[in-house]
């Protein structure tokens, strides 16, 4: 690393030389921005290629990893919380995963050309919290697009809500690589509102939404050959024990997954190998050394940032929300989930509806 001297009160300038398979990891502080620029060579951020001599500005709290397959020189302008070069990364493993998925896509194309019924890979990324599941999904989506594919990205993590707001599950048809700073284009996502930050709040409703989302995605794959060959890349919650484990296996069944990647958790890997059908390939892979555990406060801040971004956009793509009045008579307020009806209140032989997914109208 070479640090260039700057005039007083000017932001610091640091230059890093990355060798083959090196990764620059940096975190932006809480008070300022950091600008990244590729000076020489080729590099990427989570699978999105950097443009030579283009400046990328990251806001407070951003955590970024710049990786190169060859050699590169990059420059950081601004004060970072941390910035260092890492020689040991799992990127080669992730690239091999992409290559294996691409082989499955090619096999599906060949089978369909011979009038056989086939589809691209359906891969699900699982693991505890803070192991890099969302990042790996982003990398695999970007690599697929760079290969000329258009996969569907499915996010089942209601705790973060990277496609919309926290408390939702959704799917996004990926047609271009993610913006280095802003992420994927979210103009036309399919979103289902769950309303809680963990599946544990109403597991029956969560499983129902997963089933409905899976049906919608399968319909898209049947109607669109490009989506069918591109396959699915599914992100999941970090709740992996007890009922959380059942949510994972339920999602695997609903989406009919063909590959499961377990990040950094051997017990979960062995349990899924035991419980999933034999045709499902279960892989165990390491997490990146750059992944760090987030505190409760950091998670709350991240959720608040997603909500703010949903309504107000970003600095590059701002939105301007406004308020308007609605007559109260036109308003309907409902709740999903009610108290169970006592069995003695039911006619003999009648089974009650599932109170956990029943819609109760407060105001109409």
Describe the overall structure.
By secondary structure, this protein is of the alpha+beta class. The protein folds into 3 domains: 2-86, Jelly Rolls (Sandwich); 91-312, P-loop containing nucleotide triphosphate hydrolases (Rossmann fold, 3-Layer(aba) Sandwich), CATH 3.40.50.300; 328-363, no CATH class. It is built from 7 helices and 19 strands. The chain is globular and about 80 Å long. The N and C termini lie far apart (64 Å).
Key phrases:
single chain, 364 residues, alpha+beta, Jelly Rolls, Rossmann fold, 3 domains, 7-stranded mixed beta sheet, 5-stranded antiparallel beta sheet, 7 helices, 29% helix
Stated plainly, the CATH topology of the largest domain is called Rossmann fold
Instruction: Please report the number of helical segments.
Output: 7
Strands ordered across the widest β-sheet = 14-13-12-15-11-16-17
* Level-2 CATH architecture of the largest domain: 3-Layer(aba) Sandwich
Task: Please identify which CATH superfamily of the largest domain we are dealing with.
Answer: P-loop containing nucleotide triphosphate hydrolases
């Amino acid at each position: 690393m070479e640090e260039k001297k700057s005039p007083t009160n000017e932001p610091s300038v640091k230059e890093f030389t990355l060798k083959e398979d090196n990764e620059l990891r940096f975190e932006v502080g809480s008070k300022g921005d950091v600008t990244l620029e590729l000076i020489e060579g080729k590099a990427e951020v989570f699978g999105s290629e950097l443009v030579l001599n283009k400046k990328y500005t990251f806001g407070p709290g951003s955590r970024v990893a710049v990786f190169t397959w060859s050699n590169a020189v990059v420059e950081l302008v601004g004060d970072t919380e941390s910035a260092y070069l890492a020689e040991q990364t799992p990127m080669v493993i992730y690239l091999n995963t992409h290559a294996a998925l691409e082989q499955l896509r090619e096999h599906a194309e060949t089978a369909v050309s011979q009038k056989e019924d086939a589809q691209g890979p359906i891969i699900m990324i699982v693991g505890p919290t803070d192991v890099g599941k969302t990042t790996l999904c982003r990398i695999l989506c970007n690599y697929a697009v760079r290969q000329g594919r258009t996969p569907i990205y499915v996010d089942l993590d209601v705790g973060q809500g990277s496609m919309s707001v926290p408390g939702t599950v959704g799917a996004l048809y990926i047609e271009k690589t993610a913006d280095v700073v802003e992420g994927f284009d979210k103009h036309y996502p399919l979103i289902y509102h769950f309303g809680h930050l963990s599946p544990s709040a109403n597991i029956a409703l969560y499983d129902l939404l997963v089933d409905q989302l899976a049906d919608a995605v399968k319909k898209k794959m049947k109607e669109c050959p490009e989506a069918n060959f591109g396959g699915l890349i599914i992100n999941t919650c970090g709740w992996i024990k007890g009922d959380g484990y059942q949510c994972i296996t339920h999602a695997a069944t609903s989406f009919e997954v063909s590959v499961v990647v377990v990040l950094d958790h051997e017990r979960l890997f062995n349990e899924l190998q035991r419980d999933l059908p034999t045709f499902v390939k279960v892989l165990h892979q390491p997490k990146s050394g750059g992944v760090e555990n987030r505190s409760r406060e950091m998670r709350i801040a991240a959720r608040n940032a997603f909500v703010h971004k949903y309504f107000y956009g970003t600095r590059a793509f701002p939105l301007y929300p406004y308020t308007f009045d609605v007559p109260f008579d036109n308003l309907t307020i409902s709740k999903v989930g009610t108290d169970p009806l006592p069995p003695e209140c039911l006619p003999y032989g009648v089974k009650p509806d599932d109170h956990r997914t029943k819609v109760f109208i407060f105001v109409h």
